[in-house]
DNA sequence: GACAAGATTAGCT
DNA sequence: GCTAATCTTGTCT
């Protein structure tokens, strides 16, 4: 049985956590079964200097959860339709998080299809932040959950990773207007479940 | 109170 | 590639 990543994993520099989350497995219980997927695309948001971060120059309201201890789930609602899932990083009071933008579905694929309302097209199931949340039944009820202590919602090591040997790509973030200059998006090279954008072509190989 | 923007998506051209 | 859908949040009056 896989164990959740420890608190120490999350209480580190946000960019380090973001990069290391690639390839890890996110697991969530849905009824009697577990849904899981490999994280293939993330973005970092850093409160201290990043105007795109909800916690930039703010401590109250929606972003309050971003100031919790690393390993806490931060979920918010955007564009009147969609949820986005983040993991808080660093010590309590810092205001940083990593957005999970895309995963590769592993377990519970049939259930994810039902939740998404699509039958075919596996690629389209979780290749975007809103799609991933819908497929994993993530919404505001999950905001503030502790991914270190919660047995039904956590991120775990991928023991196949040592043989998979992933290549990490870095680029600017997607769908923001402020903070475009920060190259805080990371994704796995050549993975089909990364959200497709022109920006992929200008990404840097790390 | 009012208003504009937003870490998106699906559907159409 | 372009745009409507849809509603919460933050900001200003």
Ordered list of secondary-structure elements with their pairings:
Elements: H1 7-10, H2 14-21, E1 25-30, E2 33-46, E3 73-78, E4 82-89, E5 96-107, H3 109-116, H4 129-135, E6 153-156, H5 161-164, E7 168-171, E8 185-188, E9 204-205
Antiparallel strand pairs: 1-2, 1-6, 2-5, 2-8, 3-4, 4-5, 7-8, 7-9
This protein binds a DNA duplex (13 and 13 nucleotides) through strand 3, strand 4 and helix 4.
Describe the structure.
The protein has 206 residues and is α+β, with helices and mostly antiparallel strands. It has one domain (7-205): 3-methyladenine DNA Glycosylase, Chain A (Roll). The protein has helices at 7-10, 14-21, 109-116, 129-135, 161-164; strands spanning 25-30, 33-46, 73-78, 82-89, 96-107, 153-156, 168-171, 185-188, 204-205. Strands 1, 2, 3, 4, 5, 6, 7, 8 and 9 form a nine-stranded antiparallel beta sheet that branches. The radius of gyration is 16 Å and the shape is globular. It binds a DNA duplex (13 and 13 nucleotides) through residues 43, 45, 52-54, 58, 61-62, 76-82, 84, 86, 99, 101, 128-131, 173-177.
């Amino acid at each position: 049985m896989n164990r959740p990543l420890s608190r120490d994993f999350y209480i580190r520099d946000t960019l380090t956590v973001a990069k290391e989350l690639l390839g890890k497995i996110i697991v969530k219980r849905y009824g009697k079964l577990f849904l899981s997927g490999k994280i293939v695309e993330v973005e970092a948001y850093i409160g201290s200097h990043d105007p795109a971060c909800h916690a930039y120059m703010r401590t109250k309201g929606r972003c309050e959860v971003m100031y919790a201890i690393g390993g806490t789930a931060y979920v918010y609602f955007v564009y009147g339709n969609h949820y986005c899932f983040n993991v808080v990083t660093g010590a309590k009071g810092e205001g940083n998080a990593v957005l999970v933008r895309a995963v590769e579905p592993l377990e519970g694929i049939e259930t994810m299809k039902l939740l998404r309302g699509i039958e075919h097209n596996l690629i389209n199931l979780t290749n975007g932040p809103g799609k991933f949340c819908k497929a994993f039944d993530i919404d505001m009820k999950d905001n503030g959950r502790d991914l270190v202590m919660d047995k039904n919602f956590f991120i775990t090591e991928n023991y196949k990773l040592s043989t998979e040997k992933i290549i990490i790509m870095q680029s600017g973030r997607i769908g923001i207007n402020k903070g475009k200059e920060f190259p805080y998006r990371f994704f796995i090279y050549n993975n089909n479940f990364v959200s497709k954008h022109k920006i992929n072509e200008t990404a840097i190989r790390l």
